[in-house]
């Protein structure tokens, strides 16, 4: 199993440099669609050809939102490897293998990686200098069966002590005025949060969220740690979230 940060920015970076244009940068299957296409065009100004290797990985997330990937055998990509020269365009086709109705959105990553050999000099040794190999990492999403369902669940989770050691929720954690809340995306599609508000007995706290924080995939969890208001007691009573689309979701308490 491999842990890899989402590399969507690589596609944007390459596009901004005028070397490569990828369309689309978020690959989405429509309902009942079995094949989708991704186009990669290489600028005539590119310095050298690329040997692109294509791979589809199953995509899940850890509690911090980091990508966790592993090889997938239910989505095929063609071609698996190809040579691309400046000014050329290549279409990669992704096909669902034995598609079955799913209750939640399935998430994958399409990785296009330049595996070209470093050019050799007259002696046959790799040329000296800086050689940049590009790697494009695109999200691939397969919709669930049925209408969209948005639902969040929350649970209080362990916090971190002053030395970074994890301690259980309760008096030991409260002594350091820290709290941790875990959100579970119990809906059937990914959700991107704009704001999260945690409330307790006589207090509320709006959690700072990174603007570029990744969406929470269906079935994934995300942990948020924050300082408690003075004399709050540490007990969390409720959690409410607002999505980037403006919807307000009231999370239900649960144990997980």
From TrEMBL:
It comes from the Bacteria. The keyword Signal applies. Keywords: Signal. Residues 21-146 form the Pili assembly chaperone N-terminal domain. One of its GO terms (cellular component) is outer membrane-bounded periplasmic space. GO terms for biological process: cell wall organization. Residues 1-18 form the signal peptide. InterPro entries: Ig-like_fold (IPR013783), PapD-like_sf (IPR008962), Periplasmic_pilus_chap (IPR050643), Pili_assmbl_chaperone_N (IPR016147). Pfam families: PapD_N. This is Molecular chaperone. It comes from Ramlibacter albus. The lineage of its organism: Bacteria, Pseudomonadati, Pseudomonadota, Betaproteobacteria, Burkholderiales.
């Amino acid at each position: 199993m491999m842990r890899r940060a989402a590399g969507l920015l690589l596609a944007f970076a390459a596009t901004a440099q005028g070397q490569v244009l990828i369309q689309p940068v978020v690959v989405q299957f429509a309902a009942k669609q079995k094949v989708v296409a991704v186009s990669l065009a290489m600028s005539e100004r590119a310095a050298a050809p690329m040997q692109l290797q294509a791979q589809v990985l199953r995509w899940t997330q850890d509690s911090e939102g980091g990508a966790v990937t592993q090889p997938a055998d239910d989505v095929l990509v063609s071609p698996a490897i190809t040579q691309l020269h400046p000014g050329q365009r290549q279409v990669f086709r992704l096909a669902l293998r034995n598609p079955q109705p799913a209750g939640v959105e399935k998430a994958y990553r399409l990785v296009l990686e330049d595996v070209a050999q470093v050019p050799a000099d007259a002696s046959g040794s790799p040329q000296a200098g800086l050689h940049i190999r590009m790697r494009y990492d695109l999200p691939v999403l397969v919709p669930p069966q049925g209408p969209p369902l948005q639902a969040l669940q929350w649970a209080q989770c362990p916090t971190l002590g002053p030395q970074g050691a994890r301690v259980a929720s309760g008096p030991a954690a409260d002594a350091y005025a820290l709290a941790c809340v875990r959100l579970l995306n119990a809906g059937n599609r990914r959700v991107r949060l704009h704001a999260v508000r945690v409330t307790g007995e006589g207090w509320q706290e709006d959690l700072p969220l990174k603007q570029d924080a990744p969406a929470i995939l269906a079935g994934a969890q995300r942990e948020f740690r924050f300082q408690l208001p003075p004399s709050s007691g540490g007990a969390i009573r409720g959690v409410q979230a607002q999505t980037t689309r403006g919807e307000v979701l009231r999370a239900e308490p649960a144990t997980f």
